């Protein structure tokens, strides 16, 4: 599937692949658009023990995250992202990439938008 959707969502991580888009899905009683994607990559080092041997790090299942975006044409937009988890031979699990930080920023974007709207309303009331 074309990754132009990632450009629209301002996600610049090349490890995320969009697999499917569903429109008019009912979530919490409201119509929403849901974008499905996967995040997979090959880590070079373990962030816990810092081993650089890629044979020590194995895929260890996937975890589903739902990331909320700003509303688009009054319809909620969600990204359901399957994140690849890895396990080091030392027994610690992890799944991290730049997109994890990006997903945190994506979650903060709706909150920042709400704060801006509140500031505008307060100015109008004063």
From TrEMBL:
InterPro entries noted in UniProt: Transpos_ISL3
Domain of life: Bacteria
PANTHER family (UniProt xref): TRANSPOSASE FOR INSERTION SEQUENCE ELEMENT IS1557 (PTHR33498)
Annotated protein name in UniProt: Transposase
Species assigned in the record: Staphylococcus schleiferi
Taxonomy of the source species: Bacteria, Bacillati, Bacillota, Bacilli, Bacillales
């Amino acid at each position: 599937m074309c990754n132009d959707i990632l450009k629209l969502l301002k996600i610049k991580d090349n490890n995320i692949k969009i697999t499917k888009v569903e429109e008019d899905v009912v979530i919490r009683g409201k119509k929403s658009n849901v974008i499905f994607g996967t995040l997979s990559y090959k880590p070079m080092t373990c962030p816990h023990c810092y081993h650089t041997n890629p044979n020590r790090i194995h895929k260890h299942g996937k975890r589903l995250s739902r990331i909320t975006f700003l509303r688009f044409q009054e319809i909620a937009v969600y990204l359901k992202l399957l994140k690849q988890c890895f396990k080091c031979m030392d027994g610690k699990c992890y799944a991290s990439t730049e997109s994890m930080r990006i997903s945190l920023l994506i979650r903060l974007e709706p909150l920042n938008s709400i704060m801006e709207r509140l500031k505008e309303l307060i100015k109008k009331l004063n």
